[in-house]
Amino acid sequence: MVTSLNAEGIEVVTFTEIEPNPRAHTIDKAIELFNQNECDLVVALGGGSVIDGSKYIAATSYSGGSCWDYVVLGDRTPREYTGAFPIISIPTVAASGSECNAGGVLTNWETKEKSFSRSEYRIPKVAILDPELHASLPDFITAESCVDIFSHLIEHYLSSDADSPFADRMTEGMILNLIDNFDKVIADPNDLDVRGQLALCSIFGWSGFQALGRLGSIPMHSIEMPLSAHYDMRHARGMAVVIPPYLEFFSDVRPDRWAQLARRCFGVVEENDLKAAKLLSVKVKEWLQRTGMAITLSDDGIGDDKFEEMAEDVIRMFAIPGTETIAGVKPINKQEIIEVFKLAK
């Protein structure tokens, strides 16, 4: 790409140091480089971490300060962006959907904190999707990425009280498409039609389209964040760890929603809502096992020594103002987060 741009007389400055769970100090280094060279825009070629990092580069270079000034962090009022340099996103994986949305995560490795921010200024001006780029991925990254897409599709579906049959059906359709094509991409990683279908699930799965008529919360993502912050676990792998125990632990809070998803997407025929709701985590685990993505904390050598600390981090950083709980299918407290971690062992 650099060669092609140079051939057209376009001066390019490259930065290739963005890591998974992009670090604030790395992004600040890139911001300094961007400003020193008086760059005009950012081309984000890579996975979700690269695109998230590029959003912070483009917006913070424009607005000033450090990238960490802008993230959600407890009672602190985040700095607000005043604009952003244009972003062109070229995702090399179908996963986060960052190529078409306003969100972005960031990790402070020194304080062991991972958080996020959103800004319409950071929505990429152009997204270029080429399934051939995705076909070069290692199989384990492809598998993890499908779980990432799934996590986005179910967050708002399960965490909102709003009634939106349209959003339900859009989400369910994407989940079924994801399940079908997850199997196909495992069988043939070079099938570009399948890669294209997964790319569409990625884009629309976290675009707001799947949540029209309702606003949800992101409790599963909040619970995963300290796993990345403390253990540098890849986000999608962390979601594979968190999703089944979360579904199991909270199945009796909104059994109607759990049961609907179980019936419509996972073949459950049980008529009793509470019983059907409890089967959702079972069916999701079976699916993850079939695709090689049934992961526990012990698989990564993670014990229970930081469960309380990580739960405290979640509450401290993301609590509903004036409470000791985070938003979710219900207000979720510290002990309940610890119980999810225990079930993830």
Summarize the structure.
By secondary structure, the chain is mainly α.
Query: Nearest-angstrom radius of gyration?
Result: 20 Å
Overall geometric form: globular
Q: Would you identify the regions where 5 or more consecutive residues have pLDDT less than 50?
A: none
Distance between the termini: 43 Å
Secondary-structure element string? HHEHEEEEHHHHHHHHHEEH
Briefly note the structural class of the backbone. mainly alpha
Description:
With 345 residues, this protein is mainly alpha-helical. Helix content is 51%, strand content 8%. The protein has 13 helices and 7 strands. The protein has helices at 2-7, 24-36, 48-63, 131-134, 139-159, 165-187, 192-205, 219-231, 235-249, 255-266, 273-290, 307-318, 334-343, and strands at residues 42-46, 87-91, 103-108, 113-118, 126-127, 325-326, 332-333. The strands form 3 sheets. It has a 3-stranded parallel β-sheet with strand order 1-2-5, covered by helices on one side. It has a two-stranded antiparallel sheet with strand order 3-4. A two-stranded antiparallel ribbon has the order 6-7. Strand 3 and strand 4 (113-118) form a beta hairpin. Helix 10 crosses helix 11. The longest helix is centred in the middle third of the chain and has 23 residues, at 165-187. It is globular.
Question: Tags for this entry?
Answer:
345 residues; mainly alpha; 3-stranded parallel beta sheet; two-stranded antiparallel ribbon; 7 strands; 51% helix
